[in-house]
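Course assignment 3, question 2. Fill in each field.
Student: A.L.
Task: Predict the tertiary structure for the chain below.
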Amino acid sequence: MKRNKLFAMALVVAMIPVMTACLQNNAPASGGSELSAEAQPGTSAASAVVGADGAPAITSTDKIDMIWSHNSPESSAGHKIALKFKNELESRSNGNITVTIYANGELGSVPENDQALREGSIQIGSGTSGGLIDKRLSYFDAPNLVSSNEQALAMIGRGTDLFQYTARIYNDMGLQVLSLVPGGFRETSSNKEIRSFDDLKGLKIRTLENPTAVAYWQSWGCNPTPVAFNDLYLALKQGFVEAQENAYNTIFSAKLYERQKYIVNTHHVIMWSGIYMNKAFYDSLPDDYRALLDWVCVNVMDAYAYERNIADNEEALRAMKDAGLEVIDLTEEDYARMREAAAPAYQMIRNDVGDEAMNIFEAAAAAAGG
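Answer field:
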């Protein structure tokens, strides 16, 4: 209940300028436009009839099928989010809009799905954000900026400079951000006992194939080794690495915990749960369909994705505790030392994204209490 209240408060504050602009989510980050919904470029609310619950009513009769492809299993939070989106759009459009979901990478790998989304052969995709998507998004890889999901939510709420700046980058990539909320932290699982920052020294850890991730683990005295995710279970089993880092639900669903003794709450990087649409397809939709899509994402999907990801991670953590893993919490002093030691990684990110982006990102974290 406390988390729901925190989400509601943060969402209301963050959505005020967005609701005023009638759900426009890709306005320029600078200037704080005061245009009405009717005048905002790209907005669709002006032509839609408002339904009894505030949702735009559908007046068009076009039949639209959207393909959503993702690489998560059907038991995952990501798939449940896709199903929620499908149910909301299909039921509210009287069946005029249908959403076909392909899970488990059925249509291709993560890079292949990303390319298909940009090209428009699939219309909707989902997943986290960061430098592996585009170097301009590397600020999302910065470690130890905030220590809670609530702080992360305050950073990225609709109407914030960070959300709007990020939406502009995705627009440049040919994508429309439909929803972007925190999805939990990357944490560390290990066979080495880690009870303080100093204990990280010498840790043989599998990292993402991402120069920023390698840089911050090295700055903490570790020996990071990029390993493809599909090879990670075997790498842990054979002792090629003794630790790895992922969100709780990934550690559990991929059964990585079977090869580990400890879950160490390093809280080092926030995972971002995003829903993205091919922008040309988004712009081609009838005005009332686009208005409904925006309304569903702002009023339903943001909160659902945020809560579903947190619940999924909590369930995974409980299951790993029940399986016998010990959960270790670090201290605030440890987190501060991790942030300080990671200065080289921060400079690397600033070099990749530029001063404007990094200043916006760090200001958002500071305002959120990070």
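Instructor remarks: The radius of gyration is 21 Å. Residues 287-322 form the longest helix (36 residues).
Grade: pending
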